[in-house]
Design a protein that fits this description.
alpha/beta; Aspartate Aminotransferase, domain 1; Aspartate Aminotransferase, domain 2; 2 domains; 3-stranded antiparallel sheet; 12 strands; 40% helix; globular
Length: 392
């Protein structure tokens, strides 16, 4: 019914992922396995709804209609057991922009933001750009990934100027799907020390059975007044270019102020087609998503087998969620410019893990592409490593 193995060329579409090589470096043949967008076409119902809206021919200022709002309410309830009212939703143009607005709203310049590396770089770059100090509480990665809650308590006990935590649920880049018990333990600590939690849940729909996504707002309602949960259909259905996401904020005072700031900054000025795409995806995308998750899992298992066979010293544990593989190449003593060597000499690009902090030797690999593309790209990685003498 759905074909996730068809190679749909994105060259010539001004794709950030594919077209930048010719534009910036005059390179004609590089396979991008780095940035987190898919090479899969979105559900047909999304395309058709956008076409129908385009035929109207008038594209003036547009608000979210009740159908769009109800689509979010219904999706979050069906897929994540989050009970919402339409008024709890504030639409935004992107999760990172929402983080910026929330951090500026919730902290003074002399207050601090806590993050848990290795993690998506905007989690620490955003507060730093606002001249906020970032406090790091690194994850424990010796075995099953877990939070260092003992260190977290110590940090909060010693420094009352830490006011906000930015959390990744599910986790990018390690692919951890946090359990209800883990999230409850975290929220109890934040409650004790009176922190507000910004929970980025943009990968919430990309969790592989038997694991299940647990939304922060579904853990225990007694914590919900200190949570701003951020979501979007953009990772799930490959809609990033349509610039639509949303903040879920049960706390009326926080929501009112966030919405005010979002309006003042243009953060709430959503692309007309973003509203249409979200509505169609959330109303009709379940079967597509199920098939997409299977294609991603097949690619992750292929990658695991390939690495075990061709690069057995690499450390790679199958993720519980996301279409991102977090691979440790450090046993091969690859140089710091490994990413650049692969790009300019090998014709393939991975994402350097150093940008996520605490991750020398790691690289992130996007497997959301036809398997033939992944196979070709990973073979180029091995061929380049062999050519450079890193494989014996």
């Amino acid at each position: 019914m759905f074909n996730f193995q068809e190679a749909n060329s994105r060259l010539g579409t001004n794709s950030t992922k594919w077209d930048r090589y010719q534009k910036r470096w005059q390179l004609d043949d590089v396979i991008p396995l780095w940035v987190a967008d898919m090479d899969f076409q979105c559900p047909e119902e999304v395309t058709e709804r956008i076409i129908q809206r385009a035929r109207h021919g008038i594209f003036g200022y547009t608000d979210a209609g009740s159908e769009c709002l109800e689509a979010v309410v219904d999706w979050e309830k069906r897929h994540h057991q989050v009970t919402l009212r339409q008024e709890d939703i504030v639409f935004t143009t992107g999760v990172v922009y929402a983080l910026y607005t929330a951090v500026e709203m919730l902290t003074r310049p002399d207050e601090k933001v806590l993050v848990q590396p290795p993690v998506y770089p905007p989690f620490f770059n955003t507060p730093l750009s606002l001249n906020r100090t970032v406090v790091y509480n690194p994850l424990l990665l010796d075995g099953q990934p877990r939070m260092n809650l003992e260190e977290l308590v110590q940090l909060l006990k010693e420094d009352p100027s830490i006011r906000v935590m930015i959390f990744c649920n599910p986790h990018n880049p390690i692919g951890k799907s946090w359990t209800k018990e883990e999230l409850t333990a975290l929220l109890e600590i934040l409650e004790r020390y009176d922190l507000t939690l910004l929970s980025d849940e943009i990968h919430a729909d990309l969790v592989f059975p038997p694991h299940q996504h647990v939304s922060m707002l579904a853990v225990d309602e007694r914590f919900n007044q200190r949570i701003i949960q951020l979501g979007a259909p953009t990772k799930t259905f490959n809609l990033a270019g349509l610039k639509i996401s949303y903040a879920l904020i049960p706390n009326e005072a926080l929501r009112t102020e966030f919405a005010r700031r979002a309006k003042a900054s243009g953060l709430s000025s959503i692309n007309i087609f973003g509203y249409e795409a979200l509505t169609a995806a959330y109303q009709h995308g379940d079967a597509w998503l199920e098939a997409c998750l299977q294609a991603i899992q097949d690619n992750l298992h292929w990658l695991k087998d390939f690495l075990d066979r061709e690069l057995p010293l690499c450390r790679f544990d199958l993720p519980e969620s996301t279409y991102l593989a977090w691979v440790d190449f450090s046993a091969y003593h690859v140089p710091d410019n490994f990413q650049e060597i692969l790009k300019f000499e090998g014709g393939v690009e991975l994402q350097d893990g150093r940008g996520f902090k605490n991750s020398n030797g790691y690289h992130r690999i996007n497997v959301a592409c036809p398997q033939a593309t992944l196979k070709k790209g990973m073979q180029r990685v091995v061929d380049t490593m062999r050519k450079k003498g890193w494989l014996k």
